[in-house]
Each structure stands twice: as C-alpha cells, then as structure tokens.
Amino acid sequence: MLNNQGKDHNMKNINAFIKTLIILTPLLLVFIIAGCNKEPKYIAGAGIQGIREPIFRILLSPVAYDGAIVVIEGVVQDFSEQEETDSANADDLEATFKLFDTKGSYINIRMPGQWEIVDNDYIIIGGIYRKNPNEIEAKQFEKVDFEDKDEKDIDKEIEKRNDW
C-alpha cells in the first residue's frame, strides 16, 4: 500500500511539472522571439582594437602607455597631409593632426596614406602611442556620425563619450 501511495505521489508531481511546462513554454518563446526581433545597437569604434582610454589619462601617465596599442577619440584639429619623411616612394602621403578631447588635452596623430578627414571631425583612433613625441602612430580610425542629432545633442553625446 505504501508503494502505491508513493507512485501516486510521483505521478502527481510529474503531472504538475508537465502542466507547468505547458504554461511556461509559450511565455518563454514569446520572450525569446521578442528579444530576437530587436535591431542590435551600433557602437562606434567597437571594431578598433586597443586599450580604450581618454586622452587626459594617457597624458597623466605617458610612461605607462608608451608602446601600447591604445584607442582614443576626439575632435580633429590642424589636419594636414604631406609626403612621408621615411618613405622611399615620393608619392606616399602621411596625414598629421591633433586629436583634442573636451577638456582641451590633445595627442598628435600620424597616419600613413590619404584620408577623408577634415578639421572638426569627431573620430576614434587606434594605434601605437609613443611618449616622445606625444604621438600615436595610427593604424585604424572611424568617424563618428552625428548627422541625425542637433548641436545640443551632439555636445551631450561627446561629453558622455569622454567620461568613460
């Protein structure tokens, strides 16, 4: 008699578990489908490799970052292109400019090649930091597109990006 009671009790537990699964499975599927339909948010500069640091942090401790691959972002100033000094080919161009953060700190940038960058572009740069002469030998960059925002929103977005 105890055996039958144990079996009945187990059957009740199994039936309760199956009923719970029947109720929860459609709810779980709804949550999964709803989550899958969201468009992923694009994060500017996510593909640029290196240690992400604000410019002012690198300038506070340049020895710590000397020779490191870093990723910084800021506003382009004093953009120019000239022939590379250490290239055997006279047609090779090199872009140089200063990249400023919102606090007024800047790092010099040197990039081989010809680029569609102009003063006041907001960009993210990745490359090797050199303490002397306070310069990044850039290997990657990406412009941050603020075209769908007004000037006030752009300032807030830049301030938020500089405070990480």
Please give the number of β-strands.
6
Under CATH, the topology of the largest domain is which?
Answer: OB fold (Dihydrolipoamide Acetyltransferase, E2P)
Q: Give the % helix.
A: 25-40%
CATH architecture of the largest domain: Beta Barrel
- Share in β-strands: 25-35%
Q: How confident is the prediction overall: mean pLDDT?
A: 82
| N/C terminus separation | 69 Å
The gross shape turns out to be elongated
For the record, the count of structural domains works out to 2
Uncertain runs are none
- Main beta sheet: strand number and arrangement? 5 strands, mixed, barrel
Instruction: List SSEs in N-to-C order.
Output: HEHHEEEEEH
Summarize the SSE layout with pairings.
Layout: H1 2-36, E1 51-52, H2 55-60, H3 62-65, E2 69-83, E3 93-100, E4 106-112, E5 122-130, E6 135-143, H4 151-162
Parallel strand pairs: 1-2, 4-6
Antiparallel strand pairs: 2-3, 2-5, 3-4, 5-6
Task: Explain this structure.
The structure is a single chain. The protein is 35% helix and 30% strand. It is of the alpha/beta class and 164 residues long. The chain folds into two domains: 1-38; 51-162, Nucleic acid-binding proteins (OB fold (Dihydrolipoamide Acetyltransferase, E2P), Beta Barrel), CATH 2.40.50. It has a five-stranded mixed barrel. A hairpin with a 5-residue loop joins strand 3 (93-100) and strand 4. The radius of gyration is 28 Å and the shape is elongated. The chain starts with a helix and ends with a helix.
